[in-house]
């Protein structure tokens, strides 16, 4: 569970909650010692009443949850939102107004409601293909006076997921996981433990042709179209994080190779959402921009996870130092010598009494190939600009942060913040290592 999730170390107090919300009292199984008893999680209405009570008690949200619709698991949904907050704050800055999209908001409209309650400067588009669900979603938005932040939009199954004029900062989705009712039954039969509660939902919330794989493949295609195949040129330079929850681990083994092969994309992130001892879901995110998330946000860290082979490239590399003595002078001398080739750097605070350095470079300006091209350009200085040796491949720039993270066993952490090519990041690390060790 996310470290900021309010339920991580503070699970609901059922006894006090039942006193504040009497509707819960009918769902406790009687006990012989006059305590509150055991809550009946097998009853779908009991799950709805508990979720509504928690939303009101902990988030001051009044939410209708029809029994024929999927009842959101609150801790899990909150985990997803908190991870999105981390991803955005780290890659594009904190304290910024955000425009989000919830694909398939359902009747509850849970992601926009929770996210906007948690982040008053956020706005949301919330879509669904079920007209009846959207009627309830609109009532939920209105009941909580969030009409200025959340706009409900009805879609058809053939529509693009992202066919909006707005520039989106991020998207969220809890897709239909299954291809058929038979698949649901088959997967349930494989589980060792009996489900804690019965699964009730509208068919379009659980089932789609081709299951979640086909659904997210369409999301890949529509996200590419949204960024590159429209008249709004500014989107090509905007960092949109497209994300979706995933219900089956095997799906990641299909989708991530597709991102790499079809879209030549290595700027993606994966995380695990854990709720309780048994419920486990995953989130996959991707961006056609160049802001890079830290390893703790973007990569599966468990050493025995079968997903480790699917991790994106690392963005944090540690360099061992023999000593901290004189290393800062060596580092700054090395950086200063590259300024003439386009490098710029600044001091951005201190860590362990040592300056943190933020470095911007146009390319691998420390490499021999670049130096030869640069020398050639000086020889061609009398030629027209169009005839001169080009020094940049047009892929933008790179940002790195260099921080001393340990004094006793000295180590530098070199963080890749922005850029397209992992090989240039590796080469930069190698250059700094040779200069400082």
From TrEMBL:
GO biological process, one term: rRNA base methylation
Pfam families: Methyltransf_10 (PF05971)
Keywords, ordered alphabetically: Methyltransferase, Transferase
GO terms of molecular function: methyltransferase activity
Gene Ontology CC annotation, any one: nucleus
SUPFAM superfamilies found in the cross-reference section: S-adenosyl-L-methionine-dependent methyltransferases (SSF53335)
PANTHER family reported in the protein's UniProt record: RNA N6-ADENOSINE-METHYLTRANSFERASE METTL16, SAM-DEPENDENT METHYLTRANSFERASE
Name under which the protein is recorded: U6 small nuclear RNA (adenine-(43)-N(6))-methyltransferase
